[in-house]
Amino acid sequence: MEEKIEQLKKIVEKSQKIVFFGGAGVSTESGIPDFRSVDGLYNQKWAYPPETILSATFFHSNPKEFYRFYREKLLVFGIKPNITHFKLAELEKQGKLLAVVTQNIDGLHQAAGSKKVFELHGSVLRNYCTKCGEFYDEKYIASHSDQDGLPLCEKCGSLIKPDVVLYEESLKDEIVSGAIKAIGGADLLIIGGTSLTVYPAAGMIHYFRGENIVLINRDPTPSDGIANLVLHESLGNVFSKL
């Protein structure tokens, strides 16, 4: 593994247009559970499967149960960025990192200092009234509710919706186009902490036209074969040595 990390160091040193494409594994070391891990959301028993609860249809038809699940499982407070988040922000500050493309909705990249972040699936930090568009932060969602447990707009009384992409919803066009442009213009694509099984997000890596793809993930992925360098290791262990 040390030999591979040295190889990664050399690749990073010579690269000037790096893009990082990350998933849940980036944030697990900050204490946020991976949906598909042994202890993740998809292995816990609820009245409905998580995929059903986190769908647009369910949000509109059963918002009470949606928010019960959402507050308990997706709103996490007191979580701090980890070494991977900070190292990526450092690379951006040095002018070597073009952008972070993330499937996560926790806002930890920005908390660590990253400026150019494409959040493919949105963010729990942003919430908007479904009628008038008034903005609310995650603390409001956690602490304000009516008798049914629903967060309602203080201006018009309508239901508030998290700015996250639910099942059955499309990714935002401007986020997708920005992420694709960044990936297409990179000379190094580092893929980290993702199983590369969630589409359409995972398909974006195929827009890369640069020299090197480095894949860092604890477990093998379906795309290991396209990478120049594969490290089956935790991101924290790897980035702490860069």
From TrEMBL:
<dbReference type="InterPro" id="IPR026591">
    <property type="entry name" value="Sirtuin_cat_small_dom_sf"/>
</dbReference>
<feature type="binding site">
    <location>
        <position position="105"/>
    </location>
    <ligand>
        <name>NAD(+)</name>
    </ligand>
</feature>
<feature type="domain" description="Deacetylase sirtuin-type">
    <location>
        <begin position="1"/>
        <end position="242"/>
    </location>
</feature>
<protein>
    <recommendedName>
        <fullName>NAD-dependent protein deacetylase</fullName>
        <ecNumber>2.3.1.286</ecNumber>
    </recommendedName>
</protein>
<feature type="binding site">
    <location>
        <position position="106"/>
    </location>
    <ligand>
        <name>NAD(+)</name>
    </ligand>
</feature>
<feature type="binding site">
    <location>
        <position position="35"/>
    </location>
    <ligand>
        <name>NAD(+)</name>
    </ligand>
</feature>
<keyword id="KW-0862">Zinc</keyword>
<feature type="binding site">
    <location>
        <position position="132"/>
    </location>
    <ligand>
        <name>Zn(2+)</name>
    </ligand>
</feature>
<dbReference type="GO" id="GO:0017136">
    <property type="term" value="F:histone deacetylase activity, NAD-dependent"/>
</dbReference>
<feature type="binding site">
    <location>
        <position position="103"/>
    </location>
    <ligand>
        <name>NAD(+)</name>
    </ligand>
</feature>
<dbReference type="InterPro" id="IPR003000">
    <property type="entry name" value="Sirtuin"/>
</dbReference>
<dbReference type="GO" id="GO:0070403">
    <property type="term" value="F:NAD+ binding"/>
</dbReference>
<dbReference type="InterPro" id="IPR028628">
    <property type="entry name" value="Sirtuin_class_U"/>
</dbReference>
<feature type="binding site">
    <location>
        <position position="36"/>
    </location>
    <ligand>
        <name>NAD(+)</name>
    </ligand>
</feature>
<feature type="binding site">
    <location>
        <position position="217"/>
    </location>
    <ligand>
        <name>NAD(+)</name>
    </ligand>
</feature>
<dbReference type="GO" id="GO:0008270">
    <property type="term" value="F:zinc ion binding"/>
</dbReference>
<feature type="binding site">
    <location>
        <position position="28"/>
    </location>
    <ligand>
        <name>NAD(+)</name>
    </ligand>
</feature>
<feature type="binding site">
    <location>
        <position position="105"/>
    </location>
    <ligand>
        <name>nicotinamide</name>
    </ligand>
</feature>
<keyword id="KW-0963">Cytoplasm</keyword>
<feature type="binding site">
    <location>
        <position position="106"/>
    </location>
    <ligand>
        <name>nicotinamide</name>
    </ligand>
</feature>
<comment type="similarity">
    <text>Belongs to the sirtuin family. Class U subfamily.</text>
</comment>
<keyword id="KW-0479">Metal-binding</keyword>
<keyword id="KW-0808">Transferase</keyword>
<feature type="binding site">
    <location>
        <position position="195"/>
    </location>
    <ligand>
        <name>NAD(+)</name>
    </ligand>
</feature>
<dbReference type="InterPro" id="IPR029035">
    <property type="entry name" value="DHS-like_NAD/FAD-binding_dom"/>
</dbReference>
<dbReference type="InterPro" id="IPR050134">
    <property type="entry name" value="NAD-dep_sirtuin_deacylases"/>
</dbReference>
<dbReference type="InterPro" id="IPR026590">
    <property type="entry name" value="Ssirtuin_cat_dom"/>
</dbReference>
<feature type="active site" description="Proton acceptor">
    <location>
        <position position="121"/>
    </location>
</feature>
<keyword id="KW-0520">NAD</keyword>
<feature type="binding site">
    <location>
        <position position="129"/>
    </location>
    <ligand>
        <name>Zn(2+)</name>
    </ligand>
</feature>
<feature type="binding site">
    <location>
        <position position="24"/>
    </location>
    <ligand>
        <name>NAD(+)</name>
    </ligand>
</feature>
<feature type="binding site">
    <location>
        <position position="156"/>
    </location>
    <ligand>
        <name>Zn(2+)</name>
    </ligand>
</feature>
<dbReference type="GO" id="GO:0005737">
    <property type="term" value="C:cytoplasm"/>
</dbReference>
<feature type="binding site">
    <location>
        <position position="194"/>
    </location>
    <ligand>
        <name>NAD(+)</name>
    </ligand>
</feature>
<comment type="function">
    <text>NAD-dependent protein deacetylase which modulates the activities of several enzymes which are inactive in their acetylated form.</text>
</comment>
<dbReference type="Pfam" id="PF02146">
    <property type="entry name" value="SIR2"/>
</dbReference>
<feature type="binding site">
    <location>
        <position position="35"/>
    </location>
    <ligand>
        <name>nicotinamide</name>
    </ligand>
</feature>
<feature type="binding site">
    <location>
        <position position="153"/>
    </location>
    <ligand>
        <name>Zn(2+)</name>
    </ligand>
</feature>
<feature type="binding site">
    <location>
        <position position="121"/>
    </location>
    <ligand>
        <name>NAD(+)</name>
    </ligand>
</feature>
